[in-house]
Design goal:
single chain; 4 strands; globular; two-stranded parallel sheet; two-stranded antiparallel ribbon; disordered C terminus; 10 helices; mainly alpha
Amino acid sequence: MSTLSATIERLLTGGHISAESVVALRQLVFAADCTVSAEEAEGLFALDECVVEAAPEWRAFFLEAMTDYVVRQQSPRGYIDADKARWLVERVTRDGRLKSATELELLVKALETAESAPSQLSTFVIRQVARAAAGDASPVDAAEVQLLRRVVFACGGEGGIAVTREEAAALFDLNDTVRDRDNDPAWRDFFVKAVANAILFASPARTPDR
C-alpha cells in the first residue's frame, strides 16, 4: 500500500480531515510530479464521499486536484470530451443525484476551466438544480442564479459564450417548475437573457422551438 493510500485509509477510518491532513495530502499528490494519477483521483473521490467532517482547506484542495486531473492532465488536455463528462457524472452522482455541493462546484469549475465541453454536461447541472427545486418546492435564490449563470456562460460550453439549445430547454423546464414561486428577481433577468442568447446564436438553418 502506498503512503497516499495509507493516508486516505486512515482518514476514512477516522472520518475527519484536518487542515494538517490536507497539507500532507497535497504534498503526497503533487510533490513527485505535480500530477494526479487515476488511483489518486479515485482515492480522493472516495475520501470526499465518506468523510464526516473536513476543514475548509479540504474542499479547495479537492476541487483543485480534480479539476487539474480531468481538464488539464487527461487526454484531450484542456478539453472535456464525452468520455470525460461521463466519468465525471458517474463519480459525482448517486442514484442520479449529485452527492453534495462540493461535487456540484467541481462540475462548474471544470466547465469554466475547459476550452470546450459537451453541452450535455452543463445541461446535466441545470437539470440537477431543477430536480432539487421540484423536490423541495423552494424558489430560485440568488446563489442558484449565480451558479446557473456560471454554468451556461462558462467559456468551456459547447456553444462558446452562446447558450445551447439543450441548455435553453433545461432552463425552460426549470422556469416551468418555479414559475409561481417567490424567486429572486435575478432569476427572471437571467432566464430571459439566457434564452435570448440561445435564439441569437442558433444556426439559421435550425428554427428554435418553444
